[in-house]
Each structure stands twice: as structure tokens, then as C-alpha cells.
């Protein structure tokens, strides 16, 4: 952090982003009426104007540094690969055939539970919620069209499953960040975290069972053309083998293209066109991610993040209060940064200091950071997960939030775990 002083005014750009984004959607009754890049642009200008003690040149350097930070570039690359994979898979009919497969073999009265379990499984294997959403959201949209379930509901279920893996996967950036900053072991954090969120997953599935309407049953299913399903199966297998998400999605693109060329549904020029069209289709999301990365960097530089950290930790007196402060600390930072990995990395060192001071087991502190960052990331309409899902489903980001059951329930059970000192550890750190 370049500046240690706190400055609440530095948070104003994010507040302006939310006011313009939500306000325009309410006024026009359409969240797509004005591009989301407009409120992001307003916030960018304001973030550059705040802090007169620094030159515009220095603030511009900080903005560029944040906009093209390693995590941002990684996310952009995933967006490009995901868009290309989605376009090629759709071009060869993979989405349609995968929907047929799901409807043919999943009990249709439990189709939403099936989507949640598949999303959880894939995200655990891939370690990326955005990659999971990018791969499975088109399938969820296809299922909604066949079953008359709302696209917002089915895609939100994918988001819930994706956040399950984001929170627990041993190769997830958030899990790695939580474990490293709290200096604990991956397997110990996984066990602690799993027992806290398991009830949330079970209740989510119960709700989804009741939300599956009668018309979701008795849908006619065409015969499955298995060869067109292979790209999604290949992506799943590659993820299970622990390959990097770049290799998973990149391999999926090539595999889908080869199948399309082999069966005649694609020509070589058509394959290249699909790749370019799919990648370009993510341009709004990529530009938004770049702008938000720069805005967050300036908020940090101008003292906004330090203000959050100080306000949430200056009145801690008990161990339970310290655990609540960790939850509030990472949640508020995640609201400001719109990135759960960055939120954990930002608050992790301070969280470790608080945990050591108040005797919080490192397994518990790592779980708290991961759980509450994933809660916020799974419900904010300007986060990469909701934005990606909404873009692929062609619905407003706010349409998904009422159906974000799992992210909300893990927060509830996280608070219960703090209140009742669960789990109880037999050994000290």
C-alpha cells in the first residue's frame, strides 16, 4: 500500500458506480438501457480526481498498475477463452446436445439440483468459479428453454455451484490465498470449511427441489448425439486431472473445433470466425474488469481500503468479536474490490495479526475469510461471476441475485459457526 493514511472519500468512486448503475436500471426499468461501462467510466474519472496531494501522472500510474495487475490479466484471459469456447461449442451443437443429455439422464423433477451438483463438481475440479460459469451457463440457458424454467434461476443455480467450488477447491485462488495468509494447511482448512458450509449446500438443494415446477417434467428429449457432447466431457475430464484453466478451456476450443470440422458442422475458416466472435463478445466484460481493477487500485492508493480496515478492527475486545471483525473486514473489502481473491490478499495479513492476538485458530480464520468473501462475490451485481452469468444468459445482473441461495446460506452458517464456536478444535495452532 503506497499510503497508510485512511480516507473515506476514496470510497466515493465505488459508491458513484453503484448509484449510477442501479439508478439507471430503476429509472429506465432496464439494466441494459445504459451500458455498465458508463457508471464505470464515471467512477474512473472520480477516482482520478480524488487526492489532490498526488499528481494526475502518479494517480494514472497507479490506475494502470491496478488495471493490468496479474489477477486482472488472468481473469481477462479466462474471459477470452471462455467466450471462444462457448461460441465454438454452440456452433457445433454441443450446448443443445448436452441439454438433451441432461434432460435424458437427470431426474427432471430434480433438474435444478442436478445443475447445482454439476456446477459444484466442475468448480471443485477447475478451481475457478468464472471458468465454471462460462462453461456451464450456456447449458443452463438451454435447459431453461426446454423446461420453461427461468433463465435467471437456472443460471443463478450455476453460480451457486460455482461458488461452492470457489470456496472449497484446493486449486482455487481464494482458497490458496486464505491458506497462505493464515499460515495453515490446505487439508485442515478444507475440513473446517466443509463442515461449516455443508448445511448451506443441503438447504440450497432442498429449496431447489421445491422450486422445480411441474412443467419441468415430461419434456420430450431428442436422441443424444454423443460426439457433440464430447467437448464438455473433455473440459470436465481435463479439470478433474488438475490441468490449469487455460489448458482446460484452450483444449476445449481445439477439441470442439476438430469435432466440428470432422462432422462437417464447421469449416476451418468458420472455426476461426467462431473463436474471434466468441472472444470479442466478451469485450464489454473485459473493459469493465480493467476499469474496476484500476478503480480499486486508486481506492487503495488514496486510503479507502485502509479506512475500511481501521474502522472494522478498532473496537475488537473478545475472540468472538474478533471473528466477527474478520467476517466484516473481508466482506466490506470485497464489496469495495469486487474480487474475492484480492479481498483476501488485502485483508489477510491484518486478519492473521488479529487471529494471533485473540487466539483464533488459523483453520477457522482461513475459513472465515474464504466463506465471507465468496458470499459477497456471489451476490454483487458488479462482480465477475454475476456479470459473466448474466451476460451469457442475456438477463440483468440483478435478476440473478434473488436466486443466489448458496452464497447467502454460507454467510448464515458462517455467522452461526462464529456464534457457537464451531468447530471446536482439540489442538492449538
TrEMBL record:
Family designation: Belongs to the NhaC Na(+)/H(+) (TC 2.A.35) antiporter family.
Listed Pfam families: Na_H_antiporter
Protein name, per record: Sodium:proton antiporter
GO MF, one annotated term: antiporter activity
Transmembrane segments annotated in the record for this chain: 9-28, 34-51, 72-90, 110-137, 149-172, 192-211, 232-262, 282-301, 368-388, 400-422
Species of origin: Pontibacillus marinus BH030004 = DSM 16465
Keywords: Antiport, Cell membrane, Membrane, Transmembrane, Transmembrane helix, Transport
Domain Na+/H+ antiporter NhaC-like C-terminal: 35-211, 227-419
Membrane topology: Multi-pass membrane protein
Subcellular compartments: Cell membrane
Keyword Membrane: yes
GO (cellular component) term, any one: plasma membrane
